[in-house]
Design a protein that fits this description.
The complex is a heterotrimer of chains A (114), B (91) and C (251). Chain A has 114 residues and is mainly α. Chain A has 4 helices and no strands. The radius of gyration of chain A is 20 Å and the shape is elongated. The chains are: A mainly alpha (114), B mainly alpha (91), C mainly alpha (251).
Chain lengths: 114, 91, 251
């Protein structure tokens, strides 16, 4: 159990990578990229977790109660919002690719160039 | 608590595989929404309420919304292209 | 490389990569045993020194505020990228205009949808403002609250009320709001420099923890970040939805 979250992280990363490599649709490819990004969030949050500790919100809590690491949570929080904006940018690129080439298949895009 | 975390981690791994193996983007939008909710539950069990709040709003609302809008735009564009080709062929 | 040749190569490479990744992760401390000093230090000093009870917001906007500035600008730049990619270039044809009789609603949405979504608009806006303003007390902050605020024009759109949506989310309102939010963060940092401190130093004298004005500059930065994130998401939505809006009636 002490190593299980890291196994899940590697699994999510590799399965997302498989989705990107074997994708036949640019929109499906963008969603698999967001799976890879979410694996990094799981990794960061599992590093900061401490057994028996509470959330790092110290409202009405006596000083000295153990709490998990807030730094990794701050990193993941802004990262999640930035992820969806970057995904929107990639989707806009996919829409433009369809407008120019008429297809969303990454393999076909290479053939139709030029 | 440990058992719950292990269970949710396994479900997250299964949901991630389900998202990748769903090939149609329209069905994948719903799959990523479910994946986002499971992920937010995992973050909550890892004592991160801020991150869980962010993930629910973004992963279950904003991300599937963008995907659906992109799919509809692509379909409209394909329809227009087909209509243009049909008029050119008819000429 | 053809697809049938690509997949076996990928499986071999992925196997090697996964093995190396797992071997690398073995060097981390085991799960549930946290070792690093920063977590303990920040949890101990956040309430007495800054008066902020939500330590994650304190790290985001006070102790590590400079990195959050950069991440907010990533968001800003991506929104600019989407608007630039999807704008209507000169010479492109507009989609065919659908004719509707004047006075009737353009899309027939059911009464249940209209009542439900229009009731939710007020509540969602209030909830979003609550999350933005209480970022330094309880879980919340500019990023989460801004995303919640951005869904309330979406509710108006879902109710089928395109005229109101076009008026609320017009680019003449939303673009200056987003620019104001992004610039406001930098100006707060520069104001600290003008008073003789370092960039983004928390120069407002702290009040006790648990009130809406407790964090000093954190409360102000929360407001600007919430404005910027909300305006950015609404701009993204209107850019994606522009085809449908311009095809129904005049702009």
């Amino acid at each position: 159990m002490t190593f299980y979250p890291y196994v899940i992280v590697v699994w999510l990363f590799v399965i997302g990578l498989y989705g990107i490599v074997s994708s036949r649709n640019l929109i499906h490819l963008t969603i698999c990229l967001s799976i890879i990004q979410s694996s990094t969030y799981v990794l960061l949050l599992s590093i900061g977790y401490q057994k028996g500790a509470g959330a790092p919100v110290l409202l009405h809590v006596p000083p000295g109660t153990p709490a998990v690491d807030p730094v990794v949570q701050a990193l993941v929080l802004t990262d999640i919002v930035v992820e969806v904006t970057v995904t929107a940018l990639l989707l806009a690129l996919a829409i433009q690719a369809h407008k120019r080439f008429g297809t969303l298949d990454p393999d076909e895009l290479r053939v139709l160039r030029g | 608590m440990l058992f719950m975390q292990g269970l949710i981690l396994t479900m997250v791994a299964g949901a991630g595989a389900a998202v990748v193996f769903t090939r149609d983007p329209l069905k994948q939008a719903l799959a990523i929404s479910l994946y986002g909710i499971l992920l937010s539950l995992l973050f909550f069990l890892l004592q991160a309420p801020d991150v869980s709040l962010s993930q629910i709003v973004v992963g279950a609302v904003a991300l599937p919304l963008m995907i659906l809008l992109a799919i509809v735009k692509v379909r409209k564009d394909a329809e227009e292209r087909r209509r243009k080709e049909a008029t050119e062929r008819g000429r | 490389m053809r697809r049938s040749a690509r997949l076996p190569v990928f499986f071999v490479a992925a196997g090697g990569f996964a093995a190396l990744f797992l071997a690398g992760l073995r060097g981390l401390p085991p799960f549930q045993q946290y070792r690093g000093p920063y977590g303990y230090v920040l949890n101990a000093i956040s309430v007495p020194q800054r008066g902020i009870t939500d330590v994650v917001s304190a790290v985001n906007f006070d102790f590590r505020g400079f990195d959050t500035l950069g991440e907010e600008y990533i968001l800003f730049t991506s929104v600019i990228g989407v608007v630039a990619l999807l704008r209507r270039l000169a010479g492109e044809t507009r989609p065919a205009q659908e004719q509707t009789a004047p006075g009737r609603p353009e899309v027939e949405t059911s009464d249940a949808t209209r009542v439900f979504t229009l009731t939710l608009v007020g509540m969602v806006t209030l909830f979003g403002l609550y999350i933005v303003s209480h970022g330094q007390i309880s879980p919340g902050g500019g990023f989460q609250g801004g995303t919640i605020l951005a869904t309330s024009p979406l509710m108006v759109y879902l109710a089928g009320d395109f005229e109101s949506f076009r008026r609320i989310a017009s680019t003449r309102l939303v673009e200056p709001a987003e620019a104001l939010g992004a610039a406001g963060y930098a100006f707060i940092g520069l104001a600290a420099m003008a008073l003789g401190f370092a960039f983004l130093y928390n120069f407002i004298p702290q009040v006790g923890p648990g009130t809406v004005i407790s964090g000093g500059t954190v409360a102000l930065i929360d407001a600007t970040v919430g404005l910027e994130v909300a305006a950015g998401f609404v701009l993204l939505l209107t850019t994606f939805l522009e085809e449908f809006l311009s095809g129904r009636g005049s702009r």
